[in-house]
Structures are given as C-alpha cells and as structure tokens.
Amino acid sequence: MSQVTVLTPQPIDRGDDPRDVMQLVNVRKIYPGPVEVLHGVDLTIKVGELVSIVGPSGSGKTTLLHLMGTLDQPTSGQVLINGIEVSSLSDRQLSAFRARTLGFVFQQFYLIDGVSAVDNVANGLLYSGVSLARRRELAVRALRRVGLGHRLGQPPAKLSGGERQRVAIARALMARPAIVLADEPTGSLDTQSGDGVLQLLRELNTDGTTVIVITHDPAVAEAMDRQVTIRDGLIVSDVVTGGVPR
Amino acid sequence: MSATIQGPARLSPTDTVRVGASGLTSRPLRSTLSALGIAIGIAAVVSVLGISASSQAALIAQLDTLGTNLLQVQAGQNFGGATSSLPLTAEPMLSRVGPVTTVASVATVSAKAYRTSYVPVGVTNGIQVKAARLNLLDALAGTMAQGSFLTKATENYPVVVLGATTAVRLGFDTLIPNSVIDIGGKTYVVGGIMASMPLAPDIDRSALIGYPQAERDFAITGSPTTIYLRSTPDQVDAVSAVVPGTVNPANPNEVNVSLPSDALQARIATNDAFNSLFLGLGAVALLVGGVGIANVMVISVLERRSEIGLRRALGATRGNIRSQFLTEALLLAGAGGVAGVLLGAVITWIYSSTRSVQFVVPVTAVAGGIAVSLVLGAIAGLYPAVRAARLAPTEALRSV
Ligand SMILES: Nc1ncnc2c1ncn2[C@@H]1O[C@H](COP(=O)(O)OP(=O)(O)O)[C@@H](O)[C@H]1O
Ligand SMILES: [Mg+2]
Predict the structure, then answer these.
(1) For B208-223, what is each residue's pLDDT tens digit?
(2) Is the per-residue pLDDT at A86 higher than 80?
(3) How many residue contacts between A and B have a Cβ separation below 8 Å?
(4) Distance separating alpha carbons of residues A171 and A94, to the nearest angstrom
(5) Burial class (CB in 10 A: 0-12, 13-18, 19+), B247
(6) A89: nearest CA in chain B?
(7) Cβ contact (<8 Å) for A106 and B397?
(8) Closest chain B residue to A101 measured between Cα atoms?
(9) B314 contacts in A (CB within 8 Å)?
(10) Which one of A76, B35, B52, B157 is least enclosed by Cβ atoms within 10 Å?
C-alpha cells in the first residue's frame, strides 16, 4: 500500500535544471461557468521518468494533461516544457512543438476510420515534414515494435481494443517524442490488454522517453515508478514506488 | 534559457490531397451522393452547350456549303396589289453588275402537275410547275438525289425534274426510268429528283421544266418570277442595294430582294434563346449541389471533432485543418464537376449520333464546368473549414 503524504510547499526551481522536462508552477484552470478545476498545481517531472497521475473521476486529470500537452493554456501559473514557457508560444509554434516533442495516447484511441493501421501510425509524423515513404517505413517499424507486424494493412474496425490502443501507441512513439502523455490508456481495455499496453509504455520509458500516464485506476498507477495523486484539483501526494515520498 | 522554436513544417501538396481525400474515401456513399448535385448541374450545362454547339456546327457547316452570298429577287406587289413579274431584261442587266457571279431564274407556269391524267384537277398537292434555267442547281448549291438536272438537250423536250417535296407528294421514292407525270394535260418524263434545298424551300415544292419547252407548251413570256443570284461574298450588301434599280429602273420599290441564308442564321440564333432556359435550370441544379456540399461539410466537421482534436495533438496547425476541409470540399465538387462534364459529353454524343450531326463539346464548357465546380466547392467548403480550424483542440477532444 502506498501511503498518502500531504506535501509541504517546496521551493520551485524554474527551468534551470536541464533535467526538468516538465514543470507546472502554481497552475490554475478556471473554465467558464466559472468552474475552478485546478487550484494551483506545482509539479516537476524529470527527463526519463515514468509517472502516473492518479485521481478520481472529475478531479481534473484530463485538464492537467491538456495543459501539459500544450493543447490548452492555464488561467494562471506557468507550464514549462524543456524550459520553454508554453504561453510564450504562438498557436503555430505550439503545433510545431507538439509535432516534434509530444506524443499522445487517448482512452478512445482516436484512430481514423477507413485508414489502415500503417497509415494511422504514419500520421504520427504527418505534420513534421517527413515524406510519405519514410513515414510508412517508420510506421511499419513502430507497428512491429508493438507486436502488430501482422496487422499492418488492417483498418481500425478489424482490430480488437487492445490492438487499437497498440496502434495508437505506435503512432505516438514513431515520432520519437521526448514526452508521451497517456490519458486513461487502459480505460477501454480488459485487464490483460491493459497490462500489455502498460508493458509497452514501460518499454518506451526504458528507451529514455518521459512517460506520463493519467488514470483513475490505482492498479495502473501502482505499475508506474512515481505516483502523483490529484484530488479536487490539488496534488495530495507524490510518491515513488513502494510508497516512498519524494 | 532561450530556445528557438521552429515553425511548423509545411504539408506537401500530395499529403494535402491525401488528407483531404481520406475524409471522402472513408464515407464513399455519402461522398458520391453529395457530389451528385454538382454532377447533375454540370452535366445539364455541358450537355445543353454541347447539343447546341453540335447542332449549330451542323447549321454552320450547312451555311458554309450553301454560302451566304445568294440573293433572291422577286417582283413585289404593285399599287393594284397584283404580283408583277420581273422584266425580261432583268437577267441580262443583273449579269452586268460587276460583283454578280451567277444569275439564274425560274418562271411560274400556270399549268399543274399530276401523277397521272386521271387525278382530279383540283388535287394539286401544292405543287407548282416552274420553268428553270439550266444553271439553277449550281446557283442554289443544290444537288440531285437521283437522275440528272435539266440539260441543254432536255430543256427542249417534255422532261421534268422534281423537287424533294414534290417527289414525295407524287409518290416517287425511287426514280424508275421512263416514269412520266402529267403537266397541264401533257406527258412529261421525270429526268431527276433534287435533294432538298434549305436555301430555296420553294424549289422543293416545284416541278421544273425547261424555259423553251414551257414557252412552247404553256405560252409563258420568258419573264422570270424569281431570280437567284450569287455575288462575291464581300459585296453582298452593295449588290443587294443596286438590284432593284437594275431590275426595274422605273419602279425600283416593286422589287423585293432577300437573303435566304438569313433564315438559317435566324435558326442558329433561336437555338441560343431556347438554351438559356436549360442553362438557367443547370445553374439552379449547381446552386443546390453547392448547398448540398456545404451541408455535408458542416455535418462532417461536427462528426469529426475528435479527428480534428487528434490532428491538432499530432501537430496540425489551424491552417492544416482549414486546408484539409477545404481540400475535401474541393475534391468533392471537383469530382462532381468531372463526372458532370463526362455525363454531359455522353449526352451530347448520344444526341449527335442519333441526329447524325457533328459531335462538339465546347472547350469552354468543359473548362468552365470544372472551374465553376471548383469555385462552388471553395465557397461551400470555406465556412465549415474555418469552423473546423477555429475549434479549440481540447473542445475537439472532449466531444466523444
Ligand atoms: N470545457 C469545460 N467547461 C466546463 N467544465 C469543464 C470543462 N472541461 C472539464 N470540465 C469540468 O472540469 C472537471 C474536471 O474534468 P477533467 O479534467 O476531465 O477530470 P478527470 O479527467 O479527472 O475526470 C469536471 O468537473 C468537468 O466537468
Ligand atoms: Mg479524464
């Protein structure tokens, strides 16, 4: 059992440690309504970490992932990725930044219907200026890596849930992003398929990629090296494997 | 620490088209149906233009062979209202006008033509008997359907040449040698049947005999009722102006001069007027097709919010999303346009082969049809594309 530790505020070093790949400084998010979903989140993730962000439904995890993925901007506070402040970038620069630095895995997979597994994966580098031939080559390699070398030409409709999520992981990893963000990657899968997906994410991490997994499932969180627990928009604990507080 | 952030990579044209097409190929039925509106509109426009160009080409070709330099001179009505005939001197006088190249004439004979002498006198079938000059056929650019026209020899004998309509009315489908008809109680041998003459419908309804024979049998004076003359093409108007004075110096206003090719040209023009109706209908079909594409695109954007969100997460810029949906609309409309042009060409081809006229699809109709569809596609796709691009990535990803 991991114990829950209430964190005492600690000094934040902003982007001066090159090993800090992701930094959130007093991040607040207020949706129109107004609904304050994040009440000042401070979080630093170092390069090569395998982190889970765990919390009950509605606690603000997806909101957090969108902020870390530059898909949204905080109402106040700062998000720094590789030391770069996200709010200083234009929409076009953010797009380019996502294409080069970030990989996403979603609970709903978001594969494009009627497009083969290879071409779905090849879309991982579509917006990076890589030629189609090269994209397909890398896509085939990525699919083999996730164990789908025999399913290359299949459209998503012909794949099982576990296979679809592995296609989505192949799409995220084929661009060799520095950070992979996964939102409930096992949320739509049975335990066995889910374990396979977690195994893949762990392998990806062993290669040096920083992997951040968002989940409401404590068992999934347990499988990661570091577990950050969020509740009602606040981080309530942050422990490394075995329940050791950071 | 300052890091330079590179801008987004450009999508290659091939990738742009592939991405745009992927939305269509994954929903083939819907894509086909929504391209259909444009296809029907373009097909209507192209086939109307094609059919009209084909039939105009036929008329223009006919005009080319018949010539637009034929003048027809007739005696007008005098103050008493009676038709005066042209003076005997009219033909030689006209021959002396410089730009006039050919002068030919006919003179109406009061006798009537019958298949046999047993036919009741009143049943004339509207056939007129006329004395004709030997060069009449050349002057009218006419041809013989069967047999031969009057010659220096046969104009002195009871030989008749039948106009196309006359031959039908008298029951001559094919010319059997030594066939005879009855003219004013005298037996005439049918020497030939003329092909129809679009420039002189009168001649189609006539039976022609030689001037000398007509003078002998029916006591005509030799003064013509109608003169046909050809002038050098660029002098038609000038000749037309001097004809009345030349023909009848005393009463030039009793002479009517007409240009038979005007009637053919008028038919080309009437075609145009009739076409505008169909072109209007085609335009309405195009408009409906354009609205249909806009509608499908709006639905497509709503349905594919999560795809838009995913693409933004993969690094697509707003511009990439906008051009994806714009390309999709352009491809849809373009495919409709190409299909419409092909369909229109097929309809024109069927028309031209059943009417045995030349097959013409104007290049402007083809290029214009495709250009119009692309413009429609751009207009129809613009609003949905802009909406898709404006969608915030988070909003797009939360939509499922
Ligand atoms: N666009 C939005 N506008 C208003 N409220 C939102 C919006 N997005 C999320 N929320 C609310 O924010 C809260 C946190 O949502 P979310 O980040 O999805 O949590 P989780 O992923 O942990 O379930 C929920 O109460 C949700 O209803
Ligand atoms: Mg969530």
Answers:
(1) 988 888 888 887 887 8
(2) yes
(3) 110
(4) 19
(5) buried
(6) B5
(7) yes
(8) B315
(9) 98-99, 104, 123-124, 126-127, 171
(10) A76
Asked if A108 and B306 count as a contact pair (C-beta separation under 8 A), the reply is: yes
Point out the ligand 1 atom lying closest to the alpha carbon of residue A59.
22
Residue A21 C-alpha, separation from nearest chain B C-alpha, in angstroms? 13
Please name the residue ranges forming H helices in chain A.
61-68, 91-101, 117-122, 132-145, 161-173, 191-206, 218-222
Res. A11 pLDDT band, cuts 50 70 90: very low
3-state secondary structure of A197: helix
Class (C level, CATH) for A10-240 = alpha beta
Q: Do residue B316 and residue A129 have CB atoms under 8 angstroms apart? A: no
Q: Is the CB of A35 under 6 A from ligand 1?
A: yes
What phi and psi values does residue B120 have, to the nearest 5 degrees?
Answer: -60, 145
**Residues of A with Cβ-Cβ distance to B27 under 8 angstroms:** 114
- pLDDT of A13 reads 52
With 0-12 / 13-18 / 19 or more C-beta atoms within 10 angstroms meaning exposed / middle / buried, residue B249 is exposed
Chain B residues touching residue A122 (CB < 8 angstroms): none
Beta-carbon contacts of residue A23 (< 8 Å; ≥ 6 apart): A12, A14, A15, A43, A44, A45, A78, A79, A80, A81
B147: left (phi over 0), alpha (psi -120 to 50) or beta: left
Alpha-carbon span B127 to B227, nearest angstrom: 19
Reported as a single tens digit per residue, the pLDDT across B175-203 is 888 888 888 888 888 888 988 888 888 88
Specify the pLDDT at position B309.
96
ipTM (interface pTM) = 0.92
- Contact between A128 and B315 using a beta-carbon 8 Å cutoff: yes
Q: Give residues whose Cβ lies within 5 Å of ion ligand 2.
A: A 62
Rounded to 5 degrees, what are φ and ψ at A231?
Answer: -145, 125
Q: Is there an atom of ligand 1 within 6 Å of A37 CB? A: yes
Q: How far apart are CA B220 and CA B109, in angstroms?
A: 7
Q: Are strands A179-183 and A102-106 parallel, antiparallel or unpaired?
A: parallel
State how far the Cα of A180 lies from the Cα of A101, in Å rounded to an integer.
Answer: 9
pLDDT tier at B15, thresholds 50, 70, 90: very high
Taking the centre of ligand 2 as the mean of its atom positions, its distance from the CA of residue A175, in whole angstroms, is 24
- What residue type is assigned to position A112 of the chain? I
Domain ranges in chain A are 10-240
Half-sphere exposure of B288 (CA within 13 A, CB side): 13
CB < 8 Å to A101, chain B: none
Ligand 1 centroid to residue A106 C-alpha, Å: 16
- For residue A67, give both structure tokens: 């902020």
